[in-house]
Structure formats: structure tokens, C-alpha cells
Amino acid sequence: MPPLLDGLRILVLEDEFLIAMDVEQLCRDHGAADVTIVRDLAEIDRRDDWSRFDAAIVDLMLGGASTLDFAARLRNAGIPFVFASGHSDSEEIEGSFPEVQLVAKPYSGDDLIEAVATACGRAKAA
């Protein structure tokens, strides 16, 4: 059976350097072909290639700014994603993004990878 994230290109929105490095390694360990880390929303706006990603892992806050508008852009582009955040304002997420899984920090690597795989339709059968 191929790794859960086999061949995927994953965008990671995470402003904490060590967490971003951990998430990148986790994704690669589970077969991701490419992992791109973005640490602030201005960087996203400068890039025009964000729609080439197969999936995204989105921290709710980047440098104190909400990522919910960007999450809406991902959804509109049909790119599956999960929220991974220490901010537990889950009501706002459930209201705006009822279909998106929130993986709360601190999370286990397995939980995060399974959430991404599920978002991409690759979940292990429970």
C-alpha cells in the first residue's frame, strides 16, 4: 500500500519555524512529493502558484493575522485542506468551514497526516 500522502504537493501555512520543519518532515515521511512552507499571508499574495498544490495544512493565525480568507480561497479553488492550530476558536471554523477538520495543537503526527489524507480522500478504512 503506498504511503498516505504519496506524490502529493502540500502547502503548509505555519509561522512557527520548528513546527513547520516538523510538519514538512512528517509529510515527506508519508510520501509527499513536495512540501512548501509559507510563514505569512503577504508571501501567499506574492505567489501565484498556490493553486498548484494538492492539499494544504493551514494554521489559523499567521503572525497575528487570520488565515480564514485564504482558507476560503483554497475551498473555492477545490484544494482540500485541514486547519492545524493552537487557537481553539472552533465555532468560527465550524460556522464557516463545517467540512474542514481542525487538528488542535499540540497534535500527534499521525492525527495530522490522517486528517490530510482524509481531506484528500485517501483515508485508511476505519
From TrEMBL:
Keywords: Phosphoprotein. InterPro entries: CheY-like_superfamily, Sig_transdc_resp-reg_receiver. The modification 4-aspartylphosphate is found at D59. Residues 9-120 form the Response regulatory domain. SMART domains: REC (SM00448). Pfam families: Response_reg (PF00072). It comes from the Bacteria. The keyword Cell cycle does not apply. Coiled coil: none annotated. The keyword Phosphoprotein applies. Transmembrane segments: none annotated. This is Response regulator. It comes from Mesorhizobium captivum.
